[in-house]
Amino acid sequence: MLESRKDNYYGFEVTMYRVSDHLWISNLMPNAQHLVNQFNCNKMMWVQTTYTTDEIELLFNVSSQSLK
What we know:
Shape: globular
């Protein structure tokens, strides 16, 4: 089972799931996007962005089935 935590993103209550040591992906939010927390090794900081399911599959090689 994946490690998870609750987070608040601009009023949205999201559940973040740990995919790897440097990557957390949320469940699907009402705006049809996922919140992604990714560690940037060049800047040595966590970066928070939103992506669609298709973008996550392409960029991070994470199956859409595991995001449900």
